[in-house]
Amino acid sequence: MGEERKREGETAESFLAQFLPELVELLSKFESIELEDVELYAERLALEFLPVAPAVAPAPAPPKPLELLMEGFEEPVMTYPGRVLEVKLGATRSEGGSRGRVVVIGGETCPPFYLFESPPPHRPVITMDVFDTKVPLPKAYKAHIKDVMHDPAEWAKRHVEKFGADMVTVHLISTDPLGEDRSPREAAKTIEEVLQAVDVPIVVGGAGDPHKDAEVFKYIAEMAAGERLMFSSVTLDMAEAGTLEPAAKAIAEGGHVVLAFTPIDLNLARELNRKLYEFVPRDSIVMDLTTAALGYGIEYSYTVMERARLAALMGDKELQHPMSAAPSNSWAAREAWMKEEELGPEWGPRELRGPLWETLTGLILLLAGVDLFMVGHPATARTLKEFIDVLMSRGKAKGADIENWVSASLG
């Protein structure tokens, strides 16, 4: 009997030795295994139950909002230690001049059109170009003034009465020594005729020669004393030629304003302003930091103008002057005046392309903080004025009906 039980135990052990590996393999694949018609004989059977973490009921989902949460927003308002000087252009009869209205630019205490910080005390203004002699101008440019181009006074009158110019710039190109070389007396006569034709402030532009411009500026400054003209422009070339001092003194003694021109360099702008401080009151200086047209380096002009304005607000006294820009320089870009056949049909007609080129140049520099714009085309003047209106009204432009945009007609 004992031997029989011993043999049965050995048989069970051998069976389990063979069966358990298969059982373990099966258990590794399935959560449970059901055995049928199996009998297990054992003196001792140990069942081991591995502990299992108790199941936790999921947290209740947060309730879905039934309406939008209303959160307040306060615009970040900063104050700046510096301020742009105010410059008055033109003088009324009671002030010693003959203008029917004057223009004041500058006075900003924050970046351009930060109305939430401080609205600008004065609007940017538009001065339109007049030339005292025949100059080559694109067809699209001449279309609106070709019948008055022979007469600077009538040309200026057209700009003011029909196109709404705030000021007029008379470019005395005929005084160029390499051109007609007209005398300062003849140039002064042209300015006098324009002063009689319009009652807005006048900008007197030179021919670009440091010697001749100084002579012309000195003569006109004495002739039109009290009118508070702006002379465009006084340069470092005049300082090198030794003509800056007499010209600046005459301009200051006549109660006029100088436009200080430098070529896209703040260090040069500071240098010229320091030289002018010896002869001209600080509130009689406007800066021209050079206008590079759209596609011809406008990013450089924008950057230097923006830097000048921010430096002025941060307390740089040598740059705390209003800025002037000349979008009319855009007409020198070939994209503004070349024929559609030469550039390709995708460029569109130059009658639209030219004014757009000038307008975009002006709009970009408006955002840099420019206070005075010299333009040539009436469409540019009108668009700039409308855009300034929108910015001055915190962007509350006239609404448009856009619901029926599919069937809307243009024109």
Write up this protein:
- By secondary structure, the protein is of the alpha/beta class.
- It has one domain: Alpha-Beta Barrel (TIM Barrel), CATH 3.20.20.
- 37% of the residues lie in helices and 11% in strands.
- It is built from 13 helices and ten strands.
- It has helices at 2-29, 139-142, 152-161, 184-197, 210-223, 236-241, 244-253, 266-277, 298-313, 334-337, 340-343, 350-366, 378-392, and strands at residues 86-89, 103-106, 125-131, 167-171, 202-205, 230-234, 257-261, 285-288, 323-325, 372-375.
- The protein has an eight-stranded parallel beta barrel with strand order 3-4-5-6-7-8-9-10, surrounded by seven helices. It has a two-stranded antiparallel sheet with strand order 1-2.
- Helix 9 links the parallel strand 8 (285-288) and strand 9 (323-325).
- Helix 3 (152-161) packs parallel to helix 4 (184-197) and helix 4 packs across helix 5 (210-223).
- The protein is elongated.
- The mean pLDDT is 89.
